[in-house]
Protein backbone atom coordinates (compact mmCIF):
# COMPACT_ATOMS: atom_id res chain seq x y z
CA UNK A 1 0.00 0.00 0.00
CA UNK A 2 2.79 2.39 0.90
CA UNK A 3 4.66 1.55 -2.26
CA UNK A 4 1.55 2.16 -4.32
CA UNK A 5 0.99 5.58 -2.83
CA UNK A 6 4.61 6.68 -3.01
CA UNK A 7 4.96 5.75 -6.67
CA UNK A 8 1.96 7.79 -7.83
CA UNK A 9 2.74 10.97 -9.69
CA UNK A 10 1.58 14.21 -7.99
CA UNK A 11 -1.40 14.64 -10.32
CA UNK A 12 -2.59 11.08 -9.55
CA UNK A 13 -3.06 11.36 -5.78
CA UNK A 14 -6.51 9.96 -4.94
CA UNK A 15 -9.24 12.55 -4.89
CA UNK A 16 -9.65 13.70 -1.29
CA UNK A 17 -13.09 15.17 -1.83
CA UNK A 18 -16.36 13.24 -2.04
CA UNK A 19 -17.57 13.03 -5.61
CA UNK A 20 -20.98 14.29 -4.60
CA UNK A 21 -22.10 17.11 -2.36
CA UNK A 22 -20.74 20.61 -1.95
CA UNK A 23 -17.36 19.73 -3.43
CA UNK A 24 -18.76 18.85 -6.86
CA UNK A 25 -21.55 19.88 -9.16
CA UNK A 26 -23.61 21.42 -6.36
CA UNK A 27 -20.77 23.80 -5.53
CA UNK A 28 -20.46 24.71 -9.22
CA UNK A 29 -24.16 25.61 -9.25
CA UNK A 30 -23.85 27.62 -6.04
CA UNK A 31 -20.86 29.55 -7.38
CA UNK A 32 -22.78 30.20 -10.60
CA UNK A 33 -25.75 31.62 -8.71
CA UNK A 34 -23.53 33.79 -6.53
CA UNK A 35 -21.63 35.17 -9.52
CA UNK A 36 -24.91 35.82 -11.34
CA UNK A 37 -26.22 37.88 -8.42
CA UNK A 38 -22.92 39.69 -7.93
CA UNK A 39 -22.67 40.57 -11.64
CA UNK A 40 -26.21 41.97 -11.73
CA UNK A 41 -25.60 44.02 -8.58
CA UNK A 42 -22.32 45.37 -9.93
CA UNK A 43 -23.86 46.15 -13.32
CA UNK A 44 -26.76 47.95 -11.67
CA UNK A 45 -24.45 50.13 -9.62
CA UNK A 46 -22.23 50.97 -12.59
CA UNK A 47 -25.12 51.68 -14.94
CA UNK A 48 -26.86 53.85 -12.37
CA UNK A 49 -23.73 55.90 -11.82
CA UNK A 50 -23.30 56.41 -15.57
CA UNK A 51 -26.94 57.39 -16.03
CA UNK A 52 -26.88 59.91 -13.21
CA UNK A 53 -23.70 61.45 -14.61
CA UNK A 54 -25.28 61.77 -18.06
CA UNK A 55 -28.48 63.28 -16.69
CA UNK A 56 -26.55 65.71 -14.51
CA UNK A 57 -24.36 66.86 -17.40
CA UNK A 58 -27.37 67.29 -19.68
CA UNK A 59 -29.51 69.16 -17.18
CA UNK A 60 -26.71 71.32 -15.83
CA UNK A 61 -26.92 73.48 -18.97
CA UNK A 62 -30.70 73.38 -19.52
CA UNK A 63 -33.76 74.87 -17.94
CA UNK A 64 -37.35 75.41 -18.97
CA UNK A 65 -39.67 78.38 -18.69
CA UNK A 66 -43.39 77.59 -18.67
CA UNK A 67 -46.17 80.01 -19.64
CA UNK A 68 -49.81 79.07 -18.92
CA UNK A 69 -52.17 78.69 -21.85
CA UNK A 70 -54.43 81.66 -22.51
CA UNK A 71 -55.12 84.61 -24.81
CA UNK A 72 -52.00 86.41 -23.55
CA UNK A 73 -49.70 83.43 -23.92
CA UNK A 74 -48.05 84.55 -27.18
CA UNK A 75 -47.30 88.02 -25.81
CA UNK A 76 -45.95 86.55 -22.59
CA UNK A 77 -43.73 84.17 -24.54
CA UNK A 78 -42.29 87.07 -26.53
CA UNK A 79 -41.51 89.08 -23.41
CA UNK A 80 -39.99 86.03 -21.72
CA UNK A 81 -37.77 85.40 -24.75
CA UNK A 82 -36.55 89.01 -24.70
CA UNK A 83 -35.65 88.70 -21.03
CA UNK A 84 -33.94 85.34 -21.45
CA UNK A 85 -31.86 86.33 -24.48
CA UNK A 86 -30.70 89.43 -22.60
CA UNK A 87 -29.65 87.39 -19.57
CA UNK A 88 -25.86 86.80 -19.27
CA UNK A 89 -24.97 83.10 -19.61
CA UNK A 90 -27.94 82.18 -21.81
CA UNK A 91 -26.82 80.74 -25.14
CA UNK A 92 -30.21 80.12 -26.74
CA UNK A 93 -33.87 80.44 -25.82
CA UNK A 94 -36.50 78.87 -28.07
CA UNK A 95 -40.26 78.50 -27.71
CA UNK A 96 -41.49 74.98 -28.50
CA UNK A 97 -44.11 74.68 -31.23
CA UNK A 98 -47.42 72.89 -30.93
CA UNK A 99 -46.13 69.63 -32.53
CA UNK A 100 -43.29 69.46 -30.02
CA UNK A 101 -45.66 70.04 -27.11
CA UNK A 102 -47.95 67.29 -28.37
CA UNK A 103 -44.97 64.93 -28.70
CA UNK A 104 -44.21 65.48 -25.00
CA UNK A 105 -47.74 64.32 -24.12
CA UNK A 106 -47.81 61.28 -26.39
CA UNK A 107 -46.14 58.90 -23.87
CA UNK A 108 -49.16 59.44 -21.60
CA UNK A 109 -52.00 60.09 -24.06
CA UNK A 110 -50.77 57.99 -26.97
CA UNK A 111 -49.70 58.95 -30.47
CA UNK A 112 -52.29 61.05 -32.25
CA UNK A 113 -54.57 61.21 -29.20
CA UNK A 114 -53.89 64.84 -28.26
CA UNK A 115 -57.03 66.86 -29.16
CA UNK A 116 -56.35 69.76 -31.49
CA UNK A 117 -58.40 72.12 -29.32
CA UNK A 118 -56.67 71.10 -26.08
CA UNK A 119 -55.05 74.24 -24.56
CA UNK A 120 -51.41 73.51 -23.87
CA UNK A 121 -49.00 75.59 -21.78
CA UNK A 122 -46.18 77.19 -23.73
CA UNK A 123 -42.64 76.03 -23.02
CA UNK A 124 -39.38 77.86 -23.67
CA UNK A 125 -36.26 75.71 -23.89
CA UNK A 126 -33.24 77.55 -22.49
CA UNK A 127 -29.64 76.45 -23.12
CA UNK A 128 -26.83 77.92 -21.04
CA UNK A 129 -23.27 78.57 -22.07
CA UNK A 130 -20.76 75.85 -21.16
CA UNK A 131 -19.57 76.25 -17.60
CA UNK A 132 -22.24 78.84 -16.77
CA UNK A 133 -24.55 78.68 -13.77
CA UNK A 134 -27.71 80.73 -13.57
CA UNK A 135 -29.49 82.11 -10.52
CA UNK A 136 -32.97 80.70 -11.07
CA UNK A 137 -34.47 82.81 -8.29
CA UNK A 138 -33.13 86.06 -9.77
CA UNK A 139 -34.37 85.08 -13.22
CA UNK A 140 -37.80 84.26 -11.80
CA UNK A 141 -37.95 87.70 -10.18
CA UNK A 142 -37.25 89.38 -13.53
CA UNK A 143 -39.90 87.32 -15.25
CA UNK A 144 -42.44 88.15 -12.54
CA UNK A 145 -41.95 91.83 -13.24
CA UNK A 146 -42.16 91.74 -17.04
CA UNK A 147 -43.68 88.40 -18.08
CA UNK A 148 -46.30 87.66 -15.48
CA UNK A 149 -47.26 84.00 -15.25
CA UNK A 150 -43.94 82.67 -16.58
CA UNK A 151 -42.27 80.22 -14.21
CA UNK A 152 -38.74 78.86 -14.25
CA UNK A 153 -38.40 75.09 -13.95
CA UNK A 154 -34.87 74.64 -12.61
CA UNK A 155 -33.89 70.92 -12.53
CA UNK A 156 -31.09 71.52 -10.00
CA UNK A 157 -33.42 71.12 -7.02
CA UNK A 158 -34.90 67.74 -7.81
CA UNK A 159 -31.70 66.53 -9.51
CA UNK A 160 -29.75 66.86 -6.25
CA UNK A 161 -32.28 64.57 -4.59
CA UNK A 162 -32.02 62.05 -7.42
CA UNK A 163 -28.22 62.11 -7.25
CA UNK A 164 -28.33 61.49 -3.50
CA UNK A 165 -30.75 58.61 -3.96
CA UNK A 166 -28.55 57.13 -6.69
CA UNK A 167 -25.49 57.38 -4.46
CA UNK A 168 -27.26 55.38 -1.75
CA UNK A 169 -28.44 52.86 -4.32
CA UNK A 170 -24.87 52.40 -5.59
CA UNK A 171 -23.70 51.91 -2.00
CA UNK A 172 -26.32 49.20 -1.53
CA UNK A 173 -25.24 47.56 -4.81
CA UNK A 174 -21.63 47.48 -3.62
CA UNK A 175 -22.74 46.08 -0.28
CA UNK A 176 -24.72 43.38 -2.09
CA UNK A 177 -21.64 42.37 -4.10
CA UNK A 178 -19.59 42.21 -0.91
CA UNK A 179 -22.19 40.10 0.88
CA UNK A 180 -22.44 37.68 -2.04
CA UNK A 181 -18.67 37.21 -2.19
CA UNK A 182 -18.52 36.83 1.59
CA UNK A 183 -21.23 34.16 1.54
CA UNK A 184 -19.40 32.37 -1.26
CA UNK A 185 -16.20 32.37 0.79
CA UNK A 186 -18.03 30.83 3.73
CA UNK A 187 -19.48 28.12 1.49
CA UNK A 188 -16.05 27.24 0.09
CA UNK A 189 -14.62 27.03 3.61
CA UNK A 190 -17.42 24.67 4.63
CA UNK A 191 -17.00 22.52 1.51
CA UNK A 192 -13.24 22.28 2.01
CA UNK A 193 -13.48 21.35 5.67
CA UNK A 194 -16.20 18.79 4.97
CA UNK A 195 -14.00 17.19 2.31
CA UNK A 196 -11.08 16.94 4.69
CA UNK A 197 -13.16 15.65 7.58
CA UNK A 198 -14.78 13.01 5.37
CA UNK A 199 -11.35 11.76 4.30
CA UNK A 200 -9.42 12.20 7.53
CA UNK A 201 -8.10 8.64 7.46
CA UNK A 202 -6.75 9.08 3.93
CA UNK A 203 -5.08 12.35 4.86
CA UNK A 204 -3.35 10.65 7.78
CA UNK A 205 -2.11 7.87 5.48
CA UNK A 206 -0.72 10.44 3.05
CA UNK A 207 1.08 12.11 5.93
CA UNK A 208 2.58 8.79 6.95
CA UNK A 209 3.99 8.14 3.48
CA UNK A 210 5.61 11.56 3.35
CA UNK A 211 3.05 13.90 1.76
CA UNK A 212 3.34 17.36 3.26
CA UNK A 213 0.52 19.77 4.00
CA UNK A 214 1.50 22.00 1.09
CA UNK A 215 1.20 19.09 -1.31
CA UNK A 216 -2.26 18.10 -0.08
CA UNK A 217 -3.32 21.75 -0.14
CA UNK A 218 -2.19 21.91 -3.76
CA UNK A 219 -4.54 19.06 -4.66
CA UNK A 220 -7.44 20.94 -3.09
CA UNK A 221 -6.30 24.16 -4.70
CA UNK A 222 -6.40 22.68 -8.21
CA UNK A 223 -9.74 21.03 -7.52
CA UNK A 224 -11.41 24.21 -6.31
CA UNK A 225 -9.81 26.26 -9.06
CA UNK A 226 -11.62 24.13 -11.63
CA UNK A 227 -14.87 24.35 -9.68
CA UNK A 228 -14.49 28.10 -9.39
CA UNK A 229 -13.80 28.54 -13.09
CA UNK A 230 -16.77 26.42 -14.11
CA UNK A 231 -19.18 28.05 -11.69
CA UNK A 232 -18.08 31.63 -12.36
CA UNK A 233 -18.18 31.10 -16.11
CA UNK A 234 -21.72 29.72 -15.83
CA UNK A 235 -22.98 32.56 -13.64
CA UNK A 236 -21.20 35.26 -15.59
CA UNK A 237 -22.53 33.93 -18.89
CA UNK A 238 -26.11 34.02 -17.63
CA UNK A 239 -25.63 37.51 -16.17
CA UNK A 240 -24.13 38.90 -19.37
CA UNK A 241 -26.97 37.41 -21.38
CA UNK A 242 -29.52 39.08 -19.10
CA UNK A 243 -27.68 42.40 -19.26
CA UNK A 244 -27.40 42.30 -23.06
CA UNK A 245 -31.14 41.71 -23.33
CA UNK A 246 -31.83 44.74 -21.13
CA UNK A 247 -29.17 47.28 -22.11
CA UNK A 248 -27.62 45.92 -25.32
CA UNK A 249 -23.94 45.60 -26.10
CA UNK A 250 -21.97 48.78 -26.85
CA UNK A 251 -23.28 49.94 -30.21
CA UNK A 252 -26.23 47.52 -30.18
CA UNK A 253 -29.76 47.99 -28.94
CA UNK A 254 -31.27 46.05 -26.06
CA UNK A 255 -34.87 45.07 -25.49
CA UNK A 256 -35.95 48.72 -25.50
CA UNK A 257 -35.08 49.37 -29.12
CA UNK A 258 -36.05 52.36 -31.26
CA UNK A 259 -39.67 53.22 -30.84
CA UNK A 260 -40.04 51.33 -27.59
CA UNK A 261 -41.40 53.15 -24.62
CA UNK A 262 -38.29 52.56 -22.51
CA UNK A 263 -35.78 53.54 -25.18
CA UNK A 264 -34.63 56.72 -23.47
CA UNK A 265 -34.43 55.08 -20.08
CA UNK A 266 -32.51 52.05 -21.40
CA UNK A 267 -30.09 54.34 -23.23
CA UNK A 268 -29.35 56.07 -19.95
CA UNK A 269 -28.59 52.71 -18.33
CA UNK A 270 -26.08 51.60 -20.96
CA UNK A 271 -22.69 50.21 -19.97
CA UNK A 272 -19.35 51.29 -21.38
CA UNK A 273 -16.78 48.75 -22.67
CA UNK A 274 -14.68 49.37 -19.55
CA UNK A 275 -17.67 48.58 -17.35
CA UNK A 276 -18.41 45.40 -19.31
CA UNK A 277 -14.77 44.40 -18.73
CA UNK A 278 -15.13 45.13 -15.00
CA UNK A 279 -18.17 42.86 -14.80
CA UNK A 280 -16.38 40.14 -16.79
CA UNK A 281 -13.51 40.40 -14.29
CA UNK A 282 -15.75 38.81 -11.67
CA UNK A 283 -15.06 35.38 -13.17
CA UNK A 284 -11.27 35.30 -12.57
CA UNK A 285 -11.78 37.14 -9.26
CA UNK A 286 -14.17 34.49 -7.95
CA UNK A 287 -12.03 31.63 -9.27
CA UNK A 288 -8.95 33.07 -7.60
CA UNK A 289 -10.82 33.76 -4.37
CA UNK A 290 -12.18 30.21 -4.32
CA UNK A 291 -8.72 28.76 -4.90
CA UNK A 292 -7.05 30.89 -2.24
CA UNK A 293 -9.81 30.21 0.29
CA UNK A 294 -9.59 26.45 -0.28
CA UNK A 295 -5.80 26.40 0.13
CA UNK A 296 -5.87 28.52 3.27
CA UNK A 297 -8.64 26.40 4.77
CA UNK A 298 -6.77 23.17 4.05
CA UNK A 299 -3.62 24.52 5.66
CA UNK A 300 -5.45 25.54 8.83
CA UNK A 301 -7.53 22.37 9.00
CA UNK A 302 -4.53 20.10 8.54
CA UNK A 303 -2.76 21.92 11.33
CA UNK A 304 -5.72 21.14 13.60
CA UNK A 305 -5.84 17.47 12.54
CA UNK A 306 -2.22 16.82 13.41
Features:
306 residues, alpha+beta, 2 domains, 11 helices, 4 strands, 66% helix, rod-shaped
Count of DSSP E strands? 4
**Beta-strand residue fraction:** 5-15%
Discrete helix count: 11
Please, how many domains?
2
Please report the distance between the alpha carbons of the first and last residues. 22 Å
Which segments are poorly predicted (pLDDT under 50) over 5 or more consecutive residues? 1-14, 250-268
Question: Biggest sheet, open or closed, and with what strands and sense?
Answer: 4 strands, antiparallel
The value of Rg in angstroms is 31 Å
Percent of residues in helices: 55-70%
Classification by helices and strands: alpha+beta
Average of pLDDT? 79
H/E topology pattern: HHEHEHEHEHHHHHH
Gross morphology: rod-shaped
**What spatial order of strands do you see in the largest sheet?**
2-3-1-4
Describe the model.
The protein has 306 residues and is of the alpha+beta class. It folds into 2 domains: 2-57 and 159-305, no CATH class; 69-148, no CATH class. It is built from 11 helices and 4 strands. The protein has helices spanning 2-6, 25-59, 73-85, 98-109, 136-146, 156-198, 200-208, 213-247, 263-268, 273-280, 282-305; strands spanning 62-67, 90-95, 122-128, 151-153. It has a 4-stranded antiparallel β-sheet, with helices on one face. The chain is rod-shaped, with a radius of gyration of 31 Å. The chain starts with a helix and ends with a helix. Mean pLDDT is 79; it is low at 1-14 and 250-268.
Amino acid sequence: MNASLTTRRPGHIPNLLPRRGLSGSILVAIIGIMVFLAALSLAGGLALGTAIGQWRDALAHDLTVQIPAGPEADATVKRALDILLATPGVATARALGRPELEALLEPWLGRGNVPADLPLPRLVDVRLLQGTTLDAAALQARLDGQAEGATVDDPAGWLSGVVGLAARARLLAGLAVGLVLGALTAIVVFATRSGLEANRDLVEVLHQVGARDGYIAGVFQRHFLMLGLKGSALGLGLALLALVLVTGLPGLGGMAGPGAGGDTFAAGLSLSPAQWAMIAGLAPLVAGMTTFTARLTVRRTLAELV
